[in-house]
Amino acid sequence: MTPGPPRIAIVIVTYNSAQVIEGCLRSLGEGARGVNLVHVIVADNNSKDDCLKVVGEVTDLPVQVVQVGRNAGYAAAINAGVEVLDVATLDAVLVLNPDCRLRPGSLLPLAESLRRPGRGIAAPLLVNPDGSLQPSLRRMPAVGRAVVEAVIGGNLAGRIGTLGEMVTHPREYAKAGEVAWATGAAMLISTDVIKEIGAWDESFLLYSEETEFSLRARDHGWITWYEPASVVEHIGGDSAINPMLASLLIVNKVKLFRRRRSTPAFLAYYLAVVLGEALRALMGRRISKASVVALLRPSRRVHKLAD
């Protein structure tokens, strides 16, 4: 990273985001205090609402709209946004959901954390709109963790040592440190990483694309760093209530594991995930029922997002 204020671009992915994008954009001025905010790219996945009209009304930021032309997914929109940037003139790119709001001064600590050698991705502390913790840090996917989560659930497993993939205990969010990966609602990526490992994998559409990108960066020796001095408010998506999105999340999680591990390990992981979702489906959880169907019947999986 060059001396002086870090040179940052922000890529925000939108899709029918009219209700949240103004709040996101309005937070950027104070949120970027202390850095040189060079570009704000709104990569739009063919919104049908007034999203782009709202974006056009914001005149105090260096905003540029990139129209993807279809609902191509999160990774494809990020790639479209990054493609119009001259990354050689930047230190880092912040990838941001439209339902995020930067707290004042939150971008600088992320950028400063990337000045240390080996750090390639920086993730903030995510909070809900009421200020409560939103668990966003993850450990490496593993068969043992999948089995434990199937039996006792991800939230509880995350509180007991390192048994769960999701980090859920509040004390783990009080200190900065290296993590396997973090949710992609807000992450600052060094342009050195972008130049070295290339584009995001568009085959995931939604969910696990940030996992794949972070683990691929890790394969190349880059650290994902968690920085709690940076606070970002995240309203949150529909995967906890929308069966289609929930099933896509689960299927992509298994798909990524299959790509990175041996066949025996994948089969064990797959069976553990199926078991966990089946147990919750038997308890009447609708999103788990949809996930079991998608896991067992590939023809019922989501391969394209609706426009």
UniProtKB/TrEMBL annotation:
EC number: 2.4.-.-
GO molecular function term, any single one: glycosyltransferase activity
Keywords for the protein's UniProt record, in alphabetical order: Glycosyltransferase, Transferase
Boundaries of every Glycosyltransferase 2-like domain copy: 10-132
Domain of life of the organism encoding this protein: Bacteria
Claim: Glycosyltransferase is one of the keywords in the record: yes
Regions that span the bilayer: none
Keyword Transmembrane helix belongs to the record: no
Signal peptide coordinates: none
Protein name as annotated: Glycosyltransferase family 2 protein
Source organism phylogeny: Bacteria, Bacillati, Actinomycetota, Actinomycetes, Streptosporangiales
